[in-house]
Every structure is written in C-alpha cells, then in structure tokens.
Amino acid sequence: MRAKRTISLLMALICLVATSAVLRAEQPIITGRFSADSIEVGDRVEYIIDIEKDRATNIGIPDFSGGLSPKQRAEVAKQKLAMSKYEAYNENIFELIEEYPLDTLEIDGRRLHLRKRYLLAAMETGRIPMRPAILYFEKNRETPDTLYADQTLQLNVLSYAELDTTLFLKADPQSQQGFAVDSEKAMSMLKEEGLYTQKNLPFRFAEIRDYAAYAGIGLIILALIIWAIIYNLRHCKPRRQSVAKPQPKLPPHVVAIKALEELGHRKLWQNGKHKQYYTSLASILKVYIDGRWDIGALDKTTGGVIAALRDIDMPRESRSDLIDILQTADLVKFAKALPEAEENEANYTRAYYFVENTKQQEPSSDPKRDIIKEAKIGE
Predict the structure, then answer these.
(1) Any idea which of 97-101, 200-204, 251-255 has the lowest mean pLDDT?
(2) Where in the chain are the domains?
(3) Which terminal residue of the chain has fewer beta carbons within 10 Å of its beta carbon, N or C?
C-alpha cells in the first residue's frame, strides 16, 4: 500500500511539474541589447529587443498585431505608458529617430523568435539604464501583463569633455608649443570607447530627406524662372525692338496735309463755327511754317510771320495766299467777321496749295526736271 501511495504521489508531482513547465513555456522570453556599449552624446544607437513566444500569445511593443479585442486594446492603452521602457524616452534622455517593423527571425513549431529594433539618439550624458519590457496577453485574458527582461542594460553616453585629450599629444620639437596631436592614437582611443568621427559614420538619406525635398522644390522653381526668361527673350524680342525703336519724324508738309484733312472732316464753318475754323486753319499753317523754316511762327502775330517770311524764297502766289488767309483769320477772330461759304472753301484750298507749293523737295534723280521746277518758282 505504501508503495502504491508513493508511486501515486510521484506521478502527481511529475504532472504538476510538467504542467508548470508547460505554463512556463507559454510565457514570452525577452532579451535586449544596444548596438554599442558607449557612444558620444547626440550620436545614434540601435536598441534591439529579442522575443521568444508561443504562437497563441499576443504581445505588444507597443504596436500590437491584429486579433485583439476592443477591450484588450483599451487595457493596452492604459498600461503601456507605465512601462519603464518608455520612461527614459519620456524624460527626453533619448530621441526616437526611427522605429523598424517587427521581424520574424525563426519559427520552431509553436515557438517564434521575433526581433524589434529602434534607432535612438542619446540626448544626455552618463550611464543610462534601460530594462527591456513588453506587454503580452495570456490565453483567454483581457488584461495585459508587463514582462521585463531579467537584465537591465547600461549605455555609457560620453561627451568630448570627459576624454583626457592630453593622451592624444606627442612631443614635436618643430611646434611652437613643443607638442602636437597624435591623430592615430586619438582615433584608436575613440574607437576603443565606441566613438567614431563623423566622416566614418554611414550616410543615411533620412538625415537629409527634408533638405533634399526643399532643394528639389527650389530647383523646380529656378528651372521655371529660367524657362520664363528664355521664353520671353525668344518670343518678345521683336516686340521690344519695335517699341524701343523711335518712330521717324514726319516732314512738316505731311503733318500739315493730315491736319487739313482732319479739319475738313470736322465741318466747322458749315455748322456756324467760323472762329474755331479759322483759328485751326491759321494754327495749321503756322505749325507748318515753323517746321519748314524755323522762324518761331507760333509765337508771332500775322504781321510778324509775314515780316519773317520776307527774305524766304517762295512763289509770289503762295505768299499772297498765305497773307490773305492769315488776315481773314484775324478778322474772324477779332472783328467777328463772317466770310461767305465760297471764301471759306477758297481759303481751305489756298492753304492746301500753299503747303504743296512750298514743301521741301526731295532730291530728284533727273537734274533737268529740277532746273525746270526752279525756273517756274522764279517766275
């Protein structure tokens, strides 16, 4: 009987141990490490968490995989802020640069080996503790548990002021101070401390991503400006030349003929505006005379214009017509005379032929024609 009882107790004990072993196996196992033991303040370091768990166990670090109930998610939101893993980050000791996706490293039956990585930048100096932790759900539980790693990590964050720079010096008789920096020894000591110069750090595009975006936008704007300038130079050049090129000055007789034509179209005397008609007619002739002989006719009276033209060579009939027109204009303006319609028409025609017969002649290719014309004018 005693032997049977002993065997029964042993069997129960074995079952209990096996059950506890099974339960123990379902609990995740976590370990953590930094990619370097020592860094300089401001430098970056990878924080790595390795997790071994059962397939049926849900974990959060802190982003949970799908399959959690709304109640489980609510419990996670309450508890994840209390995790010691995030206390150092909340105190601005570290700055989170990048969070990498959860990787599956190994699958062994029901066991999974996962890895979570963070890229951090140390913002404070000293020996900084970090205890890896995760949230996990056991089977059929709505409330998550916090599981910590067995060991607390230590990261030594140094500043250049903590390094004994006198160790970098070597004797140098040629130097004024008698010593110089031993660059090889300095680099060796920095590497022993886990520090690296900036030129030896791997380049990461993420470091200049924002600057590259701004530079790209700036280059696009600059290209558009250059294109607009080239387009304007090619397509607007003739227009600018035509605007900038001064218009040739019209001869005085051309200006006078155009003014007489406009005066005829206005029909002033036909509408009883005799004074305005003769004022315009006399003004047109004085402008022509001033442009043709430059005697200041606009500032002279009728008598002054006639006196200034006394020494000017012109046909006698043209001189007589000019005097008649200017004197008639004075009578209408100052004596309120009202000439007949025939006289108004005649004075308009005389003004036209006065301009035509006294205009400056263009050089002719036929000398005989010029001699005949001068003879007619002399008569």
Answers:
(1) 200-204
(2) 25-161, 163-198, 252-378
(3) N
Indicate the length of the chain as a whole number: 379
Question: In 176-315, which ranges are continuous DSSP H helix?
Answer: 183-192, 209-235, 237-244, 252-266, 274-293, 302-308
Q: State mean pLDDT over 164-169.
A: 57
Give the C-alpha separation, 39 to 51, whole Å.
25
pLDDT of res. 323: 92
Return the H-helix or E-strand segment holding 372. helix 367-378
- The dihedrals phi and psi of 61, each to the nearest 5 degrees, come to -145, 45
pLDDT at 175 over 60: no
Cα separation, 170 vs 165, whole angstroms: 11
Burial 291-315 (b: 16+ CB within 10 A, else e): bbbebebeebebeebeeebeeeeeb
The alpha carbon of 91 is separated from its chain's Cα centroid by a whole number of angstroms, namely 38
The token duo for 122 is 């140390």
DSSP 271: G
Say if CB 31 and CB 50 are below 8 A apart.
yes
pLDDT at position 340 over 80: yes
| Per-residue pLDDT at 67 exceeds 50 | no
**CATH, domain range 25-161:** 2.60.40.10
Tell me, yes or no, if the pTM score tops 0.85: no
Residue from 131, 122, 127, 141 nearest 59 by CA: 141
Quote the pLDDT of residue 58.
75
Q: Is 216 left (phi over 0), alpha (psi -120 to 50) or beta?
A: alpha
Identify residue 88 by its one-letter amino acid code: A
Report whether 38 contacts 194 (CB < 8 A): yes
Contact between 45 and 110 under an 8 Å Cβ cutoff? The reply is: no
What would the pLDDT profile of 39-60 be if each residue is shown by its tens digit?
A: 888 889 999 999 988 877 777 7
pLDDT score at 9? 65
Whether 81 contacts 143, CB under 8 Å: no
